[in-house]
Amino acid sequence: MVTLSALFALITWQVLADGPLLGPDERLGLELAGRGPAPLADLFADLGNMQVAVPVLACAVLVAWVRRARRAAVCAVLVMAAVPALVIPLKLWTDRQGPLTEATGYFPSGHTTTAMVAYGAAAVLLAPYVRRTWVTPVAAVLLTAATSVGLVLRGYHWPLDVVAGWCLSGVLLLALRAGAGIGQPPK
Q1: Could you give the CA distance from residue 115 to residue 104 in angstroms, rounded to a whole number?
Q2: Whole-angstrom Cα distance, residue 176 to residue 187?
Q3: How many Å apart are CA 84 and CA 26, to the nearest integer?
Q4: What is the pLDDT of residues 39-84, one digit of tens each?
Q5: Does a structural domain hold residue 53?
Q6: Residue 13 placed within a domain
Q7: In terms of DSSP H, where are the helices of 67-134?
Q8: Is the Cα torsion angle 181, 5, 91, 49 positive or negative in sign?
Q9: Is residue 124 part of a domain?
Q10: Cα(169)–Cα(164) distance, rounded to whole angstroms?
Q11: Which residues neighbour 131 within 8 Å (Cβ) at sequence distance 6 or greater?
Q12: Cβ contacts of residue 66 below 8 Å, gap of 6+?
């Protein structure tokens, strides 16, 4: 958690201070924007929409609730609620301009954070109920990676916006794991 928080702080500082990481980030972002098939990149980027990701998490929360993993279900809902509570003020504070627009408020990527938290939390909640426990985390990683790639290829976000979303999401998912008591020895 400390490493992810430190990396997030470093990237945020670079954005606020117009630091040396922004030049390579913007060159890479502009080089990648518009690459690949646009309809597929749009589909991938849309995986991070609240209307897509949150219902997936809601289904996992329902399964966990019915299976009496209520503490984990509540923790997952709280972690998902933390996404807009954290991302919106950060976007306002950093006021970063987007790759192909004059508009600001692009840091960190809310779509990336939404995708990673929703799909990651769903994976955490569903893992105890599937035979092949590797399936749910792999699916979460693939959905988050697809979202991230789509956002950069469509020019909706700079690469560092996406990396910052990963860091923030990682911290939130580790908080979910700790709060839900997952991976801890029984009392």
Answers
A1: 21
A2: 18
A3: 25
A4: 999 999 999 999 999 999 999 999 999 999 999 999 999 999 999 9
A5: yes
A6: no
A7: 70-94, 110-126
A8: negative
A9: yes
A10: 8
A11: none
A12: none
Q: Is residue 31 part of a domain?
A: no
User: Which residue's entry shows tokens 């998490």?
Assistant: 57
Helix axes 38-46, 135-153, angle to 10 degrees: 130
Q: Are 107 and 165 in contact (CB under 8 A)?
A: no
Total residues belonging to the chain: 187
Looking at the 3D structure of the chain, how many domains does it have? 1
Looking at beta carbons, which pairs linking 67-72 to residues 24 or more positions away fall under 8 Å? 67/128, 67/129, 69/125, 69/128, 69/180, 71/179, 71/180, 71/181, 72/124, 72/125, 72/176, 72/180, 72/181, 72/182
The Cα–Cα gap between 56 and 36 comes to 27
Q: Which amino acid would we find at residue 26?
A: E
Residue 56 is part of which domain span?
Answer: 38-179
pTM score above 0.90: yes
Q: Which residue positions in the chain have pLDDT lower than 70?
A: 183-187
Rg of the chain taking only CA atoms, in angstroms: 17
Assigned token pair, 158: 């700079």
Residue pointed to by tokens 């909640």: 125
Helices marked H in the chain — which ranges?
A: 2-17, 22-32, 38-46, 50-66, 70-94, 110-126, 135-153, 159-179
Note the Cα 151 to chain centre separation in Å: 12
Task: Answer yes or no: are the C-beta atoms of 121 and 173 closer than 8 Å.
Answer: yes
How far, in Å, CA of 58 to CA of 99, rounded? 32
- Measured CA to CA, the distance from residue 36 to residue 23 in angstroms comes to 23
